[in-house]
Automatic annotation (TrEMBL):
Keyword annotations of the record: Coiled coil
Record-linked InterPro entries: Snf7_fam
Coiled-coil portions: 27-91
GO terms for biological process, alphabetical: late endosome to vacuole transport via multivesicular body sorting pathway; vesicle budding from membrane
Organism: Salinomyces thailandicus
Segments passing through the bilayer: none
Name of this protein: Charged multivesicular body protein 5
Family stated for the protein in its record: Belongs to the SNF7 family.
Length: 214
């Protein structure tokens, strides 16, 4: 049966990344061949520049032309492979973007479910009643503060003229008290710091001592 229909291929299917790697490897091998062809062309060009016209130069020119044809074929193949690699890279980027988008959608779905659960536990009526109770408590607190800060036995309306008259009376009392204090001071001649009269030339005891000495 295996000879007729072939054996079942159990090898893993190639991934996009592996395909890109294989193509890049082929491009590198072509680069090696192109470098070898360019070196041969450079050698032939140097030989042709030193040769005269003749059969030998024509033969080398034919070889150089064949190498140029090979190089063009390799360059065309390289361009195709590079385009294939770029297309696969774009497909890979699209695949990554799609995966990221699906992950974002799944995260949003999970968040939506959690929000529904959390908001489902919240009773708006209870919150409104709590706000009303807080407002009532604030009003009661304000009433208490006003009651505590109320003044006692102090008239609310005071005549400014009466206050001015009282202030002038206090000023007169202060001036009268200052005059009494000035009158109650001791005269200068009765204070201890006062010395003998200025019209006495010498003290009496000192004068008697001088007369006895003479």
């Amino acid at each position: 049966m295996n000879r007729l229909f072939g054996a079942k291929n159990n090898a893993p299917k190639p991934t996009l990344n592996s395909a890109i790697t294989n193509v890049d490897g082929r491009i590198e091998s072509i680069d090696v061949k192109l470098a070898k062809l360019n070196a041969e062309l450079s050698t032939y060009q140097q030989r042709l520049s030193r040769m005269r016209e003749g059969p030998g130069k024509s033969a080398i020119k034919q070889k150089a032309i064949k190498i140029l044809q090979q190089r063009k074929q390799y360059e065309a193949q390289k361009d195709q492979l590079q385009q294939q690699s770029w297309n696969m890279e774009q497909a890979g980027m699209m695949q990554d973007n799609l995966k990221n988008t699906m992950a974002t959608v799944d995260a949003m779905k999970t968040t939506q479910k959690e929000l529904k659960k959390q908001y489902g536990k919240v009773d708006i009526d209870k919150i409104e009643r709590m706000q009303d109770e807080m407002a009532d408590l604030m009003e009661v607190g304000n009433d208490i503060q006003e009651s505590i800060s109320r003044s006692y036995d102090v008239p609310e309306d005071v005549d400014e003229a009466e206050l001015d008259a009282e202030l002038e009376a206090l000023g007169e009392e202060v001036d009268f008290g200052g005059e009494l204090e000035g009158q109650g001071e001791m005269p200068g001649f009765l204070q201890e710091s006062a010395g003998p009269p200025q019209f006495i030339d010498e003290a009496p005891e000192l004068a008697k001592a001088k007369e006895a000495a003479t």
